[in-house]
Model the fold of this input.
Amino acid sequence: MIDECLGVEVRIEGDGCPLADATRATGASVDARPPLLRADGNALLRFSGPARDDLADALDADDRIRYLYRSRTDDRHTFRCLSTRPCVVHDLISAGFLVDSLAYGPERTAVTGAVVGQDVLQGVMETAGETVGVELERVYPLGPEDDAPVARRWDLTPAQAESLRTATAMGYFTVPRRTTASEVADAMGISKTAFLERLHRAQHALCSQAFDVDAPPASGD
Done:
């Protein structure tokens, strides 16, 4: 039995899959579940994006997307569909990458997940090396507590977790920054003020828990 599990984060640039193309064309950000691969090579996709018709229109006009279904809420749309175009993520999964989350942004795709053991990690990286635009960002050992979803582990609301996830995927926290608060807010379909408020509440929750600071909890989303 292998007793080592490694967390892995990679960045993909220049992916030509439908979701990557739609986010580049519209400037929106999309959070996706790992694709379910069919025996015929097509993929079943489930993902969510801001409540904007341009994203839905771009996907609906793409002939690689079939059976597109959209459910709507006030500030978020959830999509289900079939994609006939394999993407880079499929190659990583085939090499043994256990994908937890995908965040498609206008400039890149952020993929987080895990591999079981160094041998599998080596195979994943060899596959990534053969794929244009795949860059390893972080590798770290996983403990039992890491199997909990980030939002639940750090007591974040869904809106706070989304603000952190989208900002990270779009490069808001890099030095220098690759995007602005206004651009992240536009991708989420909310105002800049709402984005910054959610982001600050999320940062407050993360920092107070990480450093065990007994600060008053922030209210709201």
Notes: The helical segments are 18-26, 53-61, 88-94, 118-129, 150-153, 158-169, 181-188, 192-210. The CA atoms of residues 49 and 215 lie 32 Å apart. The first strand starts at residue 5 and ends at 12.
